[in-house]
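Kindly inspect what follows.
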Amino acid sequence: MEWPWFAKLKSISLQLISKVLFLCHWSFMKTTELFSILDTVDSTNNYAMAKLHAGLAKHGMAWVALEQTAGKGQRGREWLSQPGENIALSVVVAPAGLFANQPFVFNMTIANACFNFLTTYFTEELTIKWPNDLYVSDRKAGGILIENIYQGSAWKWAVVGVGINVNQLFFDQNLKNPVSIRQVTGKSYDTTALARNLHQAILDELNRSGRSTANEILKSYNQRLYKRNKTVRLKRQNIVFETNIREVNKFGQLLTTDSIDRQFEFGEVEWIL
């Protein structure tokens, strides 16, 4: 015999489970619809920018390329990657709320997202090298390039480009200190599956930022800062000097100290590793 109250409870439970499953499926479908795979492209950032200018992109859309023929790195550098071996991902973001007038807080949020993604694969010392490289010990596992679209003074769009070395074992000799996930773990990975996970990690971190303050995001970034509280060699205007890394401030300036306190803008100094 089944008591009436039990039958009612069972019915409510089944309805609740159905709703949860529906929401999970909807969330998965929405993310899947935002993610596209390109066989070959000059640059995923260029592709995303073209989509934006054509009015064919929306917040959260992402493209991953199996091959980039002209990948882009920081300060006009080329991002070199063997076809099919690594992640070349670009995500379109409409900055809002916390980010509206604080572009480096946005930069830090993306760096934190990529850091969180990589903790799944690296047990060695993983850090964020100012401003937006991802390092394992003293070797570069990935990098971030953010390009923006402004209308007047209004920041309308950001294209977040992320490159992660995944399966590549041999790198161009002109690259100083690259490393791939495979070189560290000894395992080979499905790069497209990892790119999907990275895309989701970025969307999740952007959602979490809506419940965070700029100081909380900055604190997380600085806790992960490469060479923090250590003495490093930097180069500025052909002069190499030693200084101790303190932290990065909310404006994205690197703060160091030696005989004096120093403050550097992005591009003002070069790391000597």
